[in-house]
Amino acid sequence: MKKDYYEILGIDKGADAAAIKKAYRKKAIEFHPDKNPGDKEAEEKFKEAAEAYEVLSDADKKARYDQYGHAAFEGGGGFGGGGHMNMDDIFSQFGDIFGSAFGGGGFGGFGGGGGGQRRVKGTSLRIKVKLTLEDIANGVEKKIKVKRKVQADGVTYKTCPTCNGTGQVMRVANTVFGRMQTASPCNSCQGSGQVMDHKPAGADNDGMIVSDETVSIKIPAGVADGMQLKVSGKGNEAPGKNSIPGDLLVVIEELEHDTLQREGDNLHYDLYISFAEAALGGSKEIDSVTGRVRIKLEEGIQSGKILRLKGKGLPSLNSYGNGDLLVHINVWTPKKLNKEQKEFFEQMLEDQNFKPSPTKNDKSFFEKVKEMFS
Predict the structure, then answer these.
(1) What does the entry list as the binding residues for Zn(2+) (predicted)?
(2) In whole angstroms, what separates CA 154 from the centre of its chain?
(3) Is 270 marked as binding a ligand?
């Protein structure tokens, strides 16, 4: 079972952005690979801290984590979460966090803070996936065709002549404090230490071509409209032998259902019945996300009554079980009556059995709304 992100960083849920950043920097420096060479346990804790920081430092991801926990980032690498971050991802995204603690945050010859050669990461792609309530109820695997940039076959790279493969250039400047030497990423190779040596036919100036690829995405049950799924490494590739592909960001779009309305994990269904059905009772078939279900109507059921079908709603992302299906009873009043029908109801006007006499068990509209949301 994955550890709580707040526990990993040693902070509480009320921590602000500055406290989160400070806690991550402390953990990252403590378990940094340069400080713990060959220590696999320290490396894992370093990755855990980076994953926790990636989520908690982003207001949107943090809000989803606070609501759904780790389940908000399940499937295809996580809903914007760290997933399986590698060292290059970490230094590429958070290298500046380390400041000068490790000479710019480098690791294994690559860094994200300006020190030494670095790996270039490709840009991310964003697509929308439309899901029905049935898809959301059961979870689904979607195969999506994606157009992404990849390195062309036959492209080759050579050491950058400007920086001699170091990924940085040194500059000396005269200041009031004397001559000072500074290092900055090489503009010729963007810090990768490599430039293209051979460009195949059909490739662009970076040696890239556009390719169609079918990506399989596993979407867990219980997702909601607007949630974002990250599929690591399925975005655009970047130039260079040691580059890192970007990510594919999949935004969930929930399609409107014909008869069901969603409210969190609960579903609502409006059931219209006739006077006769309300008076005599009986049974009716209604829609649910798992198929048609039959419900029983008691004799004398009142309009506005809510029947709660336990567990017939949507599954929770937090694995807390399923929501409920709430059936709202609406007694349909006919708008036109024939002569015989009018005579019948005229006779019933003074009938005591037809006169409203609510009891304490017949709750008011406001009580029903309060009960529904509790």
Answers:
(1) 160, 163, 186, 189
(2) 37
(3) no
Q: Give the pLDDT confidence of 264-283 residue by residue, as tens digits.
A: 999 999 999 999 999 999 99
What is the torsional sign of CA 161, 162, 168, 172? positive
* Phi and psi, residue 268, nearest 5°: -120, 140
The pLDDT value given to residue 183: 77
Is the separation of the CB atoms in 25 and 97 below 8 Å? yes
Query: How many Å apart are CA 374 and CA 371, to the nearest integer?
Result: 5
Write b or e for each residue in 339-365: b if 16 or more Cβ atoms lie within 10 A of its Cβ, otherwise e.
eeeeeeeeeeeeeeeeeeeeeeeebee
β-pairing, 228-231 with 248-254?
antiparallel
- Cβ neighbours around 144 below 10 Å, total: 16
The answer to whether 42 is a known ligand-binding residue is no
Determine the Cα–Cα distance for residues 39 and 90; give it in Å rounded to an integer. 17
Nearest-angstrom CA–CA distance, 248 and 200: 26
> What values do phi and psi take at 259, rounded to 5?
-125, -15
Burial category of 212 from C-beta neighbours within 10 Å (exposed 0-12, middle 13-18, buried 19 and up): exposed
Is 182 part of any known ligand binding site? no
Dmax (CA) for the chain in angstroms is 108
Whole-number pLDDT of residue 201: 92
This prediction has a pTM of 0.63
For the segment 288-309, the average pLDDT, to the nearest whole number, is 93
What amino acid occupies position 13? Answer: K
| 128 annotated binding-site participant | no
* Domains annotated on the chain, with CATH: 3-73 (1.10.287.110), 118-151+208-254 (2.60.260.20), 155-197 (no CATH), 261-345 (2.60.260.20)
Does 322 score more than 80 pLDDT?
A: yes
